[in-house]
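To: structure desk
From: M.T.
Subject: fold request, one chain
Message: Could you run this one when you get a chance? Sequence is below, nothing fancy, just the single chain.
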Amino acid sequence: MQNLQNSDSTIDSQAQEIALKEMVRERYDRIATQEKTLNAASCCGATVPSNKIYNIMMDDYSTIEGYAQDADLGLGCGLPTEFAHIKEGDTVLDLGSGAGNDCFVARHLTGANGKVIGVDFSDKMLEKARLNVEKLGYNNVEFRKGDIENLPITEASIDVIVSNCVLNLVPNKKAVFSQMYRALKKGGHFSISDVVLVGELPQNLRKDAEMYAGCVSGAIQKNDYLQAIKEAGFENITIQKEKTISIPDDILEKYLSEKEIQDFKKGEVGIFSITVFAQKDPQSEPAKRLFSPKKDTKNANTCAPNSGCC
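Reply: Done. Structure tokens follow.
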């Protein structure tokens, strides 16, 4: 009886994961057609926009070399390419590449001799990204349809992986980190920005589909996130940047009562964007030639590799 119950539980869990992925896919097909201002003023374009705050999560790309305005949909929660140490000639992989924003910045860094691959499972996002790359005339940037839990990427073929506010949307985050490890060459590394939690969200936020697609309720505890990276085999795990994400009251009031909002703000729950770096086989020769991971020392709480804080 116990085995049967366990089997039923596994089936239920798999069905729930499939349903979540399909919900996210449908939402991001829609988000691909929305205005940047709407996406930026909401939680990743999935919730109602705020009338009080223009920008809830995203960082400004507009001054970065390689920036392509048509690819900037006002999504994301960091600037992973800024910290990714992409060198000329590198092969770069972007997980959840959307309309191509980070891919085009990466293309500027890796140059004509490098290669950039974006993976996304939203048809509308892929359509937009491919139109953008055609307009820009890049022949070394490609966009592939795929699930980042099962990457359509050859083993040990990637130098650098970037991703911006995507893994929180994936039910099985451990599978993604395992796939990242498989795809990276020895000595390769990643720099990804994502949303993590410290403390438990109110129940009405945790269970809401909009908040899941909005990069909030699918986020996991910060310590669990870093532990999953370690368990995948990565080393030199370093938080390069960290910032607090504050959800405006005019968004929260759709999900919480006035008292719940007050309790939420008084509590010890924190929603954070972190940009985290890690390496595969740091003792290999390619990794030994690597610089120290870049950090935002002005605006971030950071920790050094092997310091114990990660």
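Reply (cont.): The chain is about 35% helix and 20% strand. Let me know if you need anything else for the meeting.
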